[in-house]
Task: inverse folding
């Protein structure tokens, strides 16, 4: 990450003011071989981070940049930003990570439109296969997957802005296994399998969740209670407890206080999801693996990672997704979409894995071209600030943060 | 050939994503490859790649690229950035899975536009890992006030790539 502005890169924009950075602390999984990940301890953003067009960019004709400046405003909360993009001109042009709970507000806006994109991200329940509950039993894990109503989660929890997928790989990515279907809600079959598993009497199932997915956790809990006649507790993890919980999960030294942890995650590309997604949840060096290593998964991953031929690699990736589905290694929920609120005079085409500005354009009616007024330029907004969600609405702005 | 249109206008963005630090980097720096709208790998500072054998990956680099400070981009920049990255045990926040094993992994300049990586074994994820291999100018690294990735701020590149 870049800590200070300067002409450091070759990219379509030059960082000319401010910086956006994070402070991380290593969390070590093993010393030999060395395996570690990072816990985000804090975020430092200047109130305004300004990018200016690199008019000398080698790919300018094909990509851009098409705009002169992009100003990242970090002096606004997401709720404030949403109000400004929906109700005003000249204050905010693009808001990322719009909550599905706010989608209708954008749709009703006279100034902004809602841009919706299938994104390479998943929402799953991490299953603690090391807990004192029998989650090491594949039949129990399958029963849980048959006890939840994914369509209800998508419809009621995310206002329809998500896709049900069989496991961890969305169908638009390489490595999606043909013929594998999502687990269907089948309460009778789930209850029958669960009854044979020896779940301890009066032992509740503990679902932990960050605040933003509490409503979804309750939808899942209600479904599991109903289907399995099982006590289910929902524990909402306060933000200040996330780093400690994350460390416990990554380092795998402490008993985890949950059986299921709702966690969103993202992929870096559409090419080989097991590298950044499946491995993180189930692999030997997976930050979010809860429970012992899974030899079957690790053997497949070891086979995949040495494939230099792309088609061969994808073929193993398909087998990996089919394997984690068959073994029900997680509570598979859905692939949430990415939502943006965009000023009506701005064209913006979302990327599935990142946020790029090179292709963004503005039309002649845009405030910055037509002589409209903006009150945000050049003001001294004080010291570095942090921009964080301020409500418990479902949001995937935590999808790249810590799991607890 | 028609000249590309001049950049026009300003946009104000509010991006609550915890990956904002990375989005700022990706909009201002580039890597041998990038990821397109659909999530597919496309070449960026590299024009092509070829496995010469199971442990040797050769990149042909794009010509006519300049850093924003005017420095011409060459294979020497890739090597410098690679060597800096390899100094650290866990440079990437997502974790050591993005590492190239050190010290066995090396970068060799063949000529100004050809670079050859040697790895201890076949690495089918190498091209994808390049997405986290940001290429900065010489000025980013050289001199006591050069920022580096975390060098000036923290005195370390761990977890800061």
Result:
């Amino acid at each position: 990450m870049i800590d200070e502005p300067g002409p450091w890169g070759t990219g379509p924009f030059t960082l000319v003011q401010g910086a956006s950075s994070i402070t991380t602390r290593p969390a070590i999984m093993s010393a030999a071989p060395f395996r570690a990940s990072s816990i985000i301890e804090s975020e430092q953003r200047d109130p305004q981070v300004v990018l200016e067009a690199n008019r000398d960019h080698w790919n300018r004709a094909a990509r851009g940049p098409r705009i002169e400046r992009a100003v990242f405003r970090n002096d606004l909360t997401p709720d404030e930003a949403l109000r400004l993009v929906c109700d005003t001109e000249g204050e905010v042009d693009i808001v990322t990570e719009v909550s599905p709970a706010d989608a209708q507000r954008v749709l009703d806006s006279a100034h902004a439109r809602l841009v919706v994109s299938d994104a390479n991200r998943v929402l799953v329940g991490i299953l603690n296969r090391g807990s004192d509950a029998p989650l090491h039993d594949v039949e129990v894990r399958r029963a849980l997957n048959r006890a939840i109503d994914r369509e209800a989660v998508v419809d009621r929890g995310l206002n329809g802005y998500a896709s049900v997928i069989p496991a961890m790989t969305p169908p638009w990515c390489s490595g999606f296994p043909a013929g594998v279907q999502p687990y269907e809600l089948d309460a009778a079959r789930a209850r029958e399998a669960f009854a044979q598993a020896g779940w301890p009497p009066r032992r509740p199932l503990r679902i932990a969740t960050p605040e933003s997915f509490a409503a979804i956790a309750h939808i899942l809990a209600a479904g599991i209670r109903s289907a399995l006649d099982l006590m289910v507790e929902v524990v909402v993890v306060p933000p200040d407890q996330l780093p400690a919980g994350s460390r416990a999960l990554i380092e795998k030294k402490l008993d985890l206080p949950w059986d299921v942890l709702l966690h969103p995650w993202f992929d870096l590309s559409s090419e080989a999801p097991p590298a950044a997604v499946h491995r993180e949840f189930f692999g030997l060096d997976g930050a979010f693996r809860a429970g012992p290593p899974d030899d079957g998964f690790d053997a497949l991953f070891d086979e995949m990672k040495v494939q230099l031929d792309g088609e061969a690699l994808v073929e193993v990736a398909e087998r990996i997704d089919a394997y984690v589905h068959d073994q029900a290694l997680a509570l598979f929920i859905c692939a949430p979409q990415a939502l943006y609120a965009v000023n009506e005079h701005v064209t913006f085409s979302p990327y599935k894995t990142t946020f790029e500005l090179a292709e963004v354009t503005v039309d002649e009616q845009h405030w910055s071209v037509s002589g409209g007024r903006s009150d945000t330029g050049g003001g001294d907004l004080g010291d570095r600030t942090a921009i964080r969600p301020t409500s418990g609405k479902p949001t995937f702005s935590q999808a790249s943060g810590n799991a607890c | 050939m028609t000249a590309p249109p001049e950049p026009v206008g300003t946009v104000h963005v509010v991006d609550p994503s915890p990956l904002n630090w990375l989005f700022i980097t990706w909009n201002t720096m580039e890597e041998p490859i990038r990821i397109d709208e659909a999530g597919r790998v496309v070449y960026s500072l590299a024009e092509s790649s070829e496995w010469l054998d199971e442990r040797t990956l050769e990149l042909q680099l794009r010509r006519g690229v300049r850093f924003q400070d005017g420095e011409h981009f060459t294979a020497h920049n890739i090597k410098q950035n690679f060597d800096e990255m390899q100094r650290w045990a866990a440079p990437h926040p997502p974790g050591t899975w993005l590492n190239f094993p050190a010290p066995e992994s090396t970068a060799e300049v063949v000529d100004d536009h050809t670079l050859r990586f040697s790895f201890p074994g076949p690495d089918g994820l190498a091209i994808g890992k390049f997405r986290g291999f940001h290429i900065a100018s010489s000025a980013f690294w050289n001199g006591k006030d050069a920022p580096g990735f975390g060098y000036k701020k923290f005195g370390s590149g761990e977890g800061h790539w």
